[in-house]
Amino acid sequence: MSLPKEDIEVLSSTWTEGVLLKRDVFSTVERGRFRTAAGEVDAVLRRLDQVPWWSYPLALHLFRRERRALALARELHVGPELLWAGEKSLVRGFIDGVALHLAKPVGDRAYFESAKLALRRIHRLGICHNDLAKEQNWLRGSDGKAYLTDFQLAVCFKSRSRLFRIAAYEDLRHLLKHKRRYAPEALTPRELQVLANKSGFARIWLATGKRIYQLITRGIFNFTDREGGGRRLVNDAPVLINALKSNPAVRDAAIVAFADRRTGVGLYAFVEASDDLTESDIRSTFHAEPKPPEHIQIVHALPRNDTGEIRNEILQLVAMNQIDLIEPLMRNDADRAFMKDILDQRKNLRDRFSF
Asked: What CATH number is given for 230-344 in this structure?
């Protein structure tokens, strides 16, 4: 599916290609710069020209839902600003922040207060997001506030109907599930009550529709994880990590996924090993199946949190070349010094872009 002539004309004069963020059967999403009347700004482009024919009708439907919701919420400043929209592509403002599962706002009461306020503001306009169970659809901005993204499943209601109230309740309940995970001590008695009471629609969905949804998304569309790595990250990465650890010179390893313009999804392995180990040595440990990682980087040590767990959220940003988003995750100067060699020697430079 190609873009309409009008979309191509606008993008050719206003859009500067940057980093690929995601490519699936519903759209291609990339970060770059968009030229406005006030100058260039960081932005995100969603386009449908690489969508397969068999998923195109649904992709177009989701695209139109997002376009309408973003246009309606333009002045709210709780999500990306709609900068331009065509027939099969749109450009939205870039939010300087990281997804909830990367930010991990443990104990951050202020974040969840702002998240609740953001929900209240879109609900006042009749917009229900309908996809807030996913942590990647909640961002923690560099200002510490909560922002919403990915409005493809959003519905814009003309009245506060019963269906609207159910959808708004479920938006809130999903937010509170995240609050329970990261800041359970901040939950109020009323919020605990909401968490304990799913709507009738949600109960029916969990018993019926969700099973069909998972069958379609995991079986047909190959969506199996929130990072977008699909079956390669879920099924292949553990096998590859075991192969890496079979080498006595390897102390530990981590594999994350990244969007790739040629293959759709690539794997990036970070290997903690002795200095005399080479990438060729590592690749010799792999077999033809499963497919080896596209990138292998030997590091002096893997970044870890206070409990010793690998900080995959940071490695994910390195693999995706979103290095400007790493700074908010740095706790101190020691963290920054630790990451310098890893950043300087990163491998995925195909989508390198100076933000």
From this structure: 3.30.300.30
